[in-house]
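Ticket reopened. Same input as before:
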Amino acid sequence: METQHFSYDNKIVKYFAYATILWGVVGMLVGLLAALQLAFPVFNFNLEYTTFGRIRPIHTNAVIFAFVGNGIFAAVYYSLQRLLKARMFSDKLSWVHFWGWQAIIVSAAITFVLGITTSKEYAELEWPIDIAITIIWVVFGWNMFGTILRRRADHLYVSIWFYIATFVTVAVLHIGNSIELPYSWIQSYPVYAGVQDALVQWWYGHNAVAFFLTTPYLGLMYYFLPKAANRPVYSYRLSIIHFWALVFLYIWAGPHHLLYTALPDWAQSLGVVFSIMLIAPSWGGMFNGLLTLRGAWDKVRDSATLKFMVVAVTAYGMSTFEGPMMSLKWVNSLTHYTDWTIAHVHIGAMGWNGFLTFGMLYYLFPKMWKTKLYSEKLANAHFWMGTLGMIFYALPLYWGAVVQTLMWKEFTPDGLLAYPNFLETITQILPMYHVRVLGGLLYFASLFLMVYNLLKTAASGKCADNEEASAPALHSPKKREKGEGLHRWLERKPVQFMVLSTVAILIGGAFEIIPTYLIKSNVPTIESVKPYTPLELQGRDIYIREGCNTCHSQMVRPFRSETERYGEYSKAGEFVYDHPHLWGSKRTGPDLARTGVPGGKMYKTNVWHYNHMLDPQKMNAQSIMPKYPWLIKDELDISSTPAKIRAMTTLGVPYDEAPYPANYDQVANDDLKKQAEEIAADLNANGIDVTSDKEIIALIAYLQRLGRDISVKE
Amino acid sequence: MDNDKYIEENKHLISDHDYDGIKELNNPMPKWWRYLFYATIVFSAVYIFRYHVFGDDLQIAEYNKEMALAEANKPKPKFDENALVLMTDADNLAKGKEIYDKNCIACHGAVGEGNAIGPNLTDKYWLNGGSLQDVYQIIKVGKPLKGMLAWQNQLSPEQMLQVSSYTMSLQGTNPPNAREAQGELVE
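Engineering reply: fixed in the latest deploy. New output:
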């Protein structure tokens, strides 16, 4: 067979590697700021651009899509070329992919700072950026498949199976969850509402974890771990079983984010059982990784690269056991809405994704620059400091979560909540938030040991942008050969492989999502639930803009401890006009689902809301809520009202039926002004000097509407 | 890797698997791993049957039972809420003050003088009646639209009587910075 000569594109790998380092530093710095804000609210700086509600999505998106994203691409571009014995399909596509992705990251940061967000977790980006992501993702997939089709290696290695599953599933999830109707050149409402929006969102959200943070990193592990350890992969059979089981089962588990909510019981139960069934397939990956090190454990003692990888894989094993446990309803009733979730995801992000990225970088730099790592000692210091940081980050949050959830649920012998004031439960765990800052700081600071070490390493060698290589041409007969196993055959049929993995991931989503549309009983209609008034709608968009849902849920679960604290538990039919749903996933502040019910347990007067938004610490010295002075100063932009009303009408909100007049979008602002004046008059009567055209008025109108429709007793 | 004894001697090595130098073994899947997988599948089947075929309690039924149990265990009130007796002993008044200091100061001032939010509690003018019965009632059910909470969600009947009695004891104390009189004169 003739030997063909070609070259690997190292330059693109180098760029993605630098990008993952840069965005890692940025993303974790913003995370540190977020942690500081929760411990000391003064770090919100009283500025709209820097409050926690806007900072938090910057942190999560930067770490997931910028740090891990570029990490994925560095790994794929390096390993794919070598596993397939081929240069990337098109250099042009590679660079469009690189610069396109960085442009998306920058535009994400800018829009989040400006409060432009859809509110949907890990899918906060607005529609123009969603389209850009779709295009760049397709460019990535095109480039990858082009390379696969032009490969010289006959069979696709397990890493590439994971890359393929990642590509198709992320595409399906991203497009499925981002179907939205623009009402301006930058903003939109999702087509889904309430329960359906929540289900689609967590089908996406959960599988973003699965197919952005997990499957590509398993692919990464399968290449870099055996390479760094110089050991064969433990079990090919296990690879096959755990790969297919993982991609098929993962997609069903999304509803475990919505246990005890208004989501229909059958969907919740599917979320529970599929999460439990995920334990073994996930652990299959962990064991194939750890057992690959059999006979190489002496190397682990000396090599920081391997240490990082071992802890990463162990953290993966821990998270993928903890996750299914948190999906059991009784465990979830304790951990949900608390910092347990935050600790859990950080074991995944810092341990699995972070450490695996670091391990890969320590392997990659000496290899690409054809030199030795500048300092193994420094890399070991990074490892220990990072590990310590992780421990100091997670342990206090686990502890705090247990303390807080028990306080939420405790009753006195008289049958009253032992801690009726939500703030008491935050004040109690505030010291844990302080320790968490320390843990985050350690982890963040340890990064710089790596940056210095890698820069020194690069300076001591030379990276060839094009690395010469040679391999025999592809030999892949069309038909299955005699004695060739079915899966072995599939491994040299990339198109069939892709189709099959697509089918595997579509089944779960279709099974769960389609019935909630088709079966009416899943969302029972409630007569008294009416669309928002134009002012409330504007207020709701301010609530979204400020990211109130990052700290306040709107979902009272059917527990005595919640109905005693917040009021009637939430019903599916209450959310039919909520584009998007704002159920939230964390309670750093109390639930607001019933805050508008007059005489309800959570009711506050207009004056209270006004004073509280202006300066929460003046009302409760220990409150950790940011101040929102700009809401009081800034005028509400009502020019957007007609477009918003039209968009909502298109989405099925009945502004086009009685009692609304024809062409309601044109006169909606009359209603808006009338309602605003009523609220302003009430505030004025209570000694507050405010005019009816301010943003605060709309926000108060929205808050006073929450939960009212099914419990008005005026 | 080529001269690695471990590999050479390993009977599970698949000879034709070589990906950029990565070799693969074909060890059997650990037995307990397989059993773990089977066990989770059995768990799932049992779970679905238990809740969706045999009809064990789903969340709303669970909630209704929890509430019924709480109702059944509710302690009996120690006194008749319609025939209250003013507490005058130092112990109960001290407890009443404690409750007042924790919950009422924000709106009614440190010693009942009132502030921009809540009315003066030390004068003879009352917005919602000035008898012990009236004061107890307003503390119990509140006046939510005006900002007064319904304290029955947070205080036991005994505690409400203690703070009511303490409030009555503030009558005529003439504190400094008192808010102007509101409501009806009650002699």
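The first helix of chain B runs from residue 5 to 9. Strands of chain B lie at 13-19, 22-25, 125-126, 184-185. Please confirm and we'll close it.
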